[in-house]
Amino acid sequence: MEKKKVVIGMSGGVDSSVAAYLLKEAGYDVIGVTMQIWQKESDDTVSENGGCCGLGAVEDAARVAQVLGIPHYVMNFRREFEQNVIRYFMREYLSGRTPNPCIACNRYVKWESLLQRSLQIGADYIATGHYARVVKLENGRYAIRRSVTAAKDQTYALYNLTQEQLAHTLMPVGDYEKSQIRGIADQIGLNVAHKPDSMEICFVPDQDYAGFIQKNSGCQIPEGNFVTADGTVVGRHRGITHYTVGQRKGLNLSMGRPVFVTEIRPETNEVVIGDSEDVFTDRLICNDLNFMSVEDLQEEMRVVAKIRYNHPEQSAVVRRISEDRAEVVFDEPVRAVTPGQAVVFYDGEYVAGGGTILGKSQKSI
Predict the structure, then answer these.
(1) Going by C-beta distance under 8 Å and a sequence separation of 6 or more, which residues neighbour residue 123?
(2) CA distance readout (Å), 242 to 211, 237, 268, 312
(3) 3-state helix, strand, coil in the chain (%, to 5)
(4) CA 262 to mean position of chain CA atoms
(5) What are 317's strand-pairing partners?
(6) Do 271 and 264 touch, CB atoms closer than 8 A?
(7) Looking at residue 39, what is its pLDDT?
């Protein structure tokens, strides 16, 4: 029987490196691919700063592939990344929202673009080193299942993958704890066994998002007013790209008490501030819905939901309120519902679906 061919995205990190090893051990014909997505050949970007996308990643991945005895290629996805991630990132901040570029990158680059190219060269699957599991449910649908290790679980960032993508995806790392993955890398002699995890946005290594947008968008980011909810001006802000809902630090306001960003109004170039309780709400509206373990949302569904990657899950009810909008009502108030971020619904261990947060909703829509 002919081996199934799998293209694995190799970032030069320990997770994707061990994933490649596990797939080869499982009998797959494995091809390693490192995706060049934002850096230029002239950039001297080390992998510690460039995360999964720096030039150092290519060298590390190539060395791992040599040890494993698998072919390794570099594919250029800069155009796809520019269109679907960088432009989106800048557009969202300029519109007063807080984007999640990793989710966009997963959906449109690491899956959509890589999958199409892989299928064209005869691959049956693509694979990654994400801490998550792909399963086919009894209802015939594919879904993402939580990883074995809750501390590293990455299902939140994968909620908007399509059924077609999931049908051609393997995620072998999801069955292991992080310590086990590093242990396997040690046992087989991989030089990346103790390489630190990349944590930040790869294309803004200094984490100065506002500076990056100012430099690359061609837009001047004007200063504006800090206001209270009733419109009272209480100070001047540096430009809306410097702020996100829930932020307390860096406001430079002398209010005599801690204050927080509660809303960003791009149409008037205002940043609204308020007290701690103003940052909490028990309901939100989301759109750009994607369903995974269920085909659609026909009636209210009891779920646990996350509104950020590191947000503690909260019990909630989700219900559709229009063709592409849903309301999520939490059992307890949650902090800093942030337009532009994802809200992800879980049904037990499985991702039921999710959407993009539009903002708080009023009582009883």
Answers:
(1) 5, 6, 7, 31
(2) 9, 8, 16, 25
(3) 30, 30, 40
(4) 23
(5) 302, 329
(6) yes
(7) 60
Residue 120 · residue 6 · CB < 8 Å = no
- Cα angle 96, 245, 267 (rounded to 5 degrees) comes to 25
Q: Give me the residue label for tokens 């930040």.
A: 200
CA-based nearest residue to 276, from 303, 254, 257, 294:
257
Which of 346, 323, 339, 292 lies closest to 100 in space, CA to CA?
339
User: Bigger pLDDT: 29 or 311?
Assistant: 29
Give the global pTM: 0.92
Cβ-count burial 246-268 (b if 16+ within 10 Å, e if not): bbeeebebeeeeebbbbbbeeee
Distance CA 96, CA 203 (A): 20
Residue 217 DSSP class: H
Query: How far is it, in rounded angstroms, from Cα 175 to Cα 25?
Result: 15
Q: Which residues are catalytic?
A: 105, 202
**Backbone phi, psi, residue 83, to 5°:** -70, -45
Confidence class for position 311, pLDDT limits 50, 70, 90:
confident
